[in-house]
């Protein structure tokens, strides 16, 4: 199998480090084509071998310099075979996409960089902008790149249909440093339940947290709650409450490497696409069909 060129955005972050570690272990499948960090970051201008000396990097990876902008990678960012794996912030993701679109248009390049986005915290309006960019380039977008979560979403959707009278609640727990709440994954799971109810002709409303003296649960609600503490990688549970019993569908992440596994599988998938907006469900759809 031919190695796939990968450009990592946010290389100094938690997921950036996980993705760099993953690619250093799978050099036969993926080739590191560039690494970026935000403007002014202390790693910018330094070689990977200097700032990640604890990792087992190949010689060419050690010599690679962290840059701020895609155009600093020279012609690498013009390769149609290259895929960007992006775990940064919404504003950074959109800024890179917008600038790259202008560069490609100015150079009249038909080959478009493909994009895998694991960034969370996008507003509805920002997601609409991502959708617009997907008309010109292939994008895989997911709030969680665990293949297990993709399967869990399938189960949640089915359970919402099988138990139409149950009360659905989503609970998630993450490390103290996570900024957005509830997590992107919690919304993905809640949306999977909502789509299951919608298939039955039922409307559901997502409700984030409850407080006050008049917070009684409405029947059509799908509740979301978030806990923050310690160094928890990620825990998600979707509970279906009836008057007679309770079913909980849960997932616990023990390391961030599982997200890298999914992100790089998504990179393989999107590399063969010209344009379009895809989810992790699309990446594993052939497995679900069987």
Textual characterization of the structure:
With 290 residues, the protein is of the alpha/beta class. It folds into 2 domains: 4-141 and 256-289, Rossmann fold (3-Layer(aba) Sandwich); 147-253, Dihydrodipicolinate Reductase, domain 2 (2-Layer Sandwich), CATH 3.30.360. It has 10 helices and 11 strands. It has a 6-stranded parallel β-sheet, sandwiched between helices. It is globular and about 60 Å long. The two termini are 24 Å apart. Residues 149-284 form the Dihydrodipicolinate reductase C-terminal domain.
Q: Indicate how many domains the architecture comprises.
A: 2
Helix coverage percent of residues? Answer: 25-40%
Shape: globular
CATH top level of the largest domain is Alpha Beta
SSE-based structural type: alpha/beta
The DSSP helix count reads 10
Question: Oligomeric form of this entry?
Answer: single chain
Low-confidence regions: none
Order of helices and strands: EHEHHEHEHEHEHEEEEHEHH
CATH 4th-level superfamily of the largest domain: NAD(P)-binding Rossmann-like Domain
What is the C-alpha radius of gyration, as a whole number of Å? Answer: 20 Å
State the end-to-end CA separation. 24 Å
Briefly note the CATH topology name of the largest domain.
Rossmann fold
Strand order in the largest sheet: 2-1-3-4-5-11
| CATH second-level architecture of the largest domain | 3-Layer(aba) Sandwich
β-strand percent reads 15-25%
């Amino acid at each position: 199998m031919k190695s796939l060129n990968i450009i990592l955005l946010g290389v100094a972050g938690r997921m950036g480090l996980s993705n760099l570690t993953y690619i250093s272990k799978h050099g036969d499948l993926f080739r590191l084509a560039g690494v970026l960090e935000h403007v002014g970051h202390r790693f910018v201008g330094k070689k990977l071998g200097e700032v990640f000396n604890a990792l087992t990097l190949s010689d060419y990876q050690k010599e690679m310099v962290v840059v701020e902008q895609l155009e600093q990678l020279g012609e690498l960012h013009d390769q149609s075979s290259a895929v960007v794996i992006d775990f940064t912030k919404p504003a950074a993701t959109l800024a890179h996409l917008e600038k790259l679109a202008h560069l490609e248009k100015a150079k009249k390049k038909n080959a478009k960089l493909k994009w895998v986005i694991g960034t969370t915290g996008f507003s509805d309006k920002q997601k609409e902008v991502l959708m617009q960019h997907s008309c010109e380039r292939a994008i895989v977008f997911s709030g969680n790149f665990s293949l297990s979560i993709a399967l869990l979403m399938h189960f949640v959707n089915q359970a919402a249909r099988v138990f139409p009278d149950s009360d659905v609640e989503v609970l998630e727990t993450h490390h103290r440093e996570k900024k957005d709440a509830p997590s992107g994954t919690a919304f993905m799971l809640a949306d999977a339940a909502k789509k299951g109810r919608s298939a039955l002709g039922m409307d559901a409303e997502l409700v984030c947290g409850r407080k006050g003296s008049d917070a009684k649960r409405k029947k059509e609600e799908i509740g979301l709650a978030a806990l923050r503490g310690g160094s928890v990688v990620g825990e998600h549970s979707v509970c279906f409450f009836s008057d007679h019993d309770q079913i909980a569908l849960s997932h616990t992440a023990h390391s961030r490497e599982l997200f890298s596994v999914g992100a790089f599988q998504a990179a393989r998938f999107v590399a063969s696409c010209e344009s379009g907006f895809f989810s992790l469900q699309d990446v594993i759809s052939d497995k679900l069909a069987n």
